[in-house]
Every structure is written in structure tokens, then in C-alpha cells.
# Entry
Amino acid sequence: MRVALPDSRPGTARRQLRAALIARRRSVPAHERARAARSVARHVDAALALRAYWRIAIYAARPEELDTAPLIALAQQRGCRIYLPRIDRRRASRAMTFVALGDSLRVNRLGIGEPESTASIGARWLDVVFLPLVGFDGRGLRLGAGGGYYDRAFAFRRLRHAWHAPRLVGLAYAFQQLEHIDAAPHDVPMDAVVTEEGITRCTTG
# Structure
């Protein structure tokens, strides 16, 4: 069952929708979460054919999010160079960098695991970025958690001035698909979304 997002909603209603989707995501039983994560990794393998020289960004999933461990393991098997996002430790900052995956992670103030490594890469030089999301539509518009970190990190994609623009691929459960999300000026559309049911190639991204 999809959750509809009308064309125009006040900010309060959008926050309520975000909260409802997060609650539904949190209610997914552990065995279904594990099965969906394996299915997503298989769909990524079939659709994207990860290459050994690719620079891949993947987030460390929190317990309520679709698990990324099978996808990280797949990227490691394919020889990809893997990076995880790390947010600026200053609370007033909304900056995010991408740091090489190491042996240990520390949990940041948002409860997200981050590498302790100092080896980072600019967002422009990633090949594929797998993004977390709360909701999405068929055009590739993304309802995130509200922090705006990814939109800021990939704002350059809206300008189309760089010769290299990483592909942005959302990871989600199928029930997170919405009928429509109103575009905001800062939104950076995704190119595709992978769920346990398969891959959706987005019309806007």
C-alpha cells in the first residue's frame, strides 16, 4: 500500500507524513528487514554491475533503516572503493564529507555510524552514491529525514557544470514510494531507487 502525498501540503503535514513513514519502517520485523536487504543487494548486482574501480558511497544503516550490510559486502567482493558519509561535528554546520570505510565506526550525534579514517573524497568524484530516504516518487524526488545533508553535498548536480556527476541511487522498502512529492528549489533528484521488489529508474534524475 502506497502513501499518497498531495500536490500541496503545509510543513506540519509533511512532518506528520515523514513521522508516519518512519514509524512504519521501524515496524518491519527483523527477518523481513534482513530478507529485503539481501534482495536489494541482488537487484543492485543485476542492474548496476558494480565495477572494481568504482568509488561507491554507502550509508551505515541505523536499526530502523533498510540494512546496507549485504550491499557493502557485495561492493567489497566486487573490489569497489567504499566511502561512508560523515557529517561535520559542529551542530550549526550541515556539511557532509565522504570518508573511506575502515575497520571501525563511531556513532555521531544522529546515531549514525561514521568511519574514523581521515581519507576522504569529494562528492563530485564518486561514481555511485546509495542514499537513505524516508519516501520517494517515480520522478526521483526524495523525502529525506529533514537535515538536507545530501541535497547540499550534491547541489552541484543541479548546475550540470561538472563533467563527472555521480549516480544517485536511493535504497528503500517498496512501501516508501509515494504518488507525488512537490519539488523544492534545493531538491537534487535521484537517478534510481532500489527496493526489495526491484529497481525504479526515475524520470527526473
Notes: DSSP finds four helices and twelve strands in the chain. The first strand starts at residue 55 and ends at 58. The helical segments are 11-26, 30-48, 69-77, 149-153.
